[in-house]
Design brief:
Chains A, B: Residues 65-127 form the Cupin type-2 domain. Chains A, B: Residues 1-17 form the signal peptide. Two copies of one chain form a homodimer. With 156 residues, chain A is mainly beta. Helix content of chain A is 3%, strand content 50%. At the A-B interface, strand 1, strand 3, strand 6, strand 7 and strand 10 of A face strand 1, strand 3, strand 6, strand 7 and strand 10 of B.
Amino acid sequence: MTVAIAVLLSASFSTFAADIQGESITVARSGSQPSVPGGMQRFSGSVRIDPLFQSAAPSRLSGGLVTFEPGARTAWHTHPLGQTLLITSGRGWIQQWGHEKQEVVAGEVVSIPPGVKHWHGATSTTGMTHVALQEALDSKNVNWLEQVTDEQYRQP
Amino acid sequence: MTVAIAVLLSASFSTFAADIQGESITVARSGSQPSVPGGMQRFSGSVRIDPLFQSAAPSRLSGGLVTFEPGARTAWHTHPLGQTLLITSGRGWIQQWGHEKQEVVAGEVVSIPPGVKHWHGATSTTGMTHVALQEALDSKNVNWLEQVTDEQYRQP
């Protein structure tokens, strides 16, 4: 089993060559892009989003680091082109609509197909952080739905 | 500055619901997908690739964890839709053709535009690991070119 310790810091973008934007490699240095609180319409509890990157077209990809304090979670939502979660620390829960809640831990990779209604977050007792990767379809990469009720959150 | 300690392990995929493939969330458990040595045509030195995920269409995304021992690097190459590197440990070098070599360290995020000829790897004295994220165009996500010579690798 191979283990790599990964340190991902909130970051901002700085071009390290004088070329025209989009034609040169850029490096996002750590620590200068502000953290964003997870909004009350889309999350419950204490959630912090640290933007990592937003690729330019023709790429469709963006990524961010999302940290959920114990009890915190997303609302129910779907992604038009799906989403991949790299669990980077802690222990969390993910649930697909109509399925049982599942536990995920650091080192696991979650693949969420397009259009699948789901939520993810921390467990009730432990925080969880993941890298979230999603591709945009017509400039949209998520469709937010209703909140996850406490009853839904707590049920097995 | 926000720091998250990330543990990314080599992993394999296991469906945790009995649905038709592609309609249910899957979790890649850690440690059961074999590491792959970086091939001699595409890499120099000791390189280990730990596959993380390969999303199904309509997603174009795949990701892997790549570990370079000191002195190890890719050959020169391009990506039809670009590439994003999340540096997860150590210290490495990246160079765009015709530009100076740049140092990257854990926590930084590198954005490589489509078609830009480049290489990346460890420094001569320190290992480096990154998550590599790339989208495929017509099922191809990389075009391999010539090796990076020792002279190219060592020059500032």
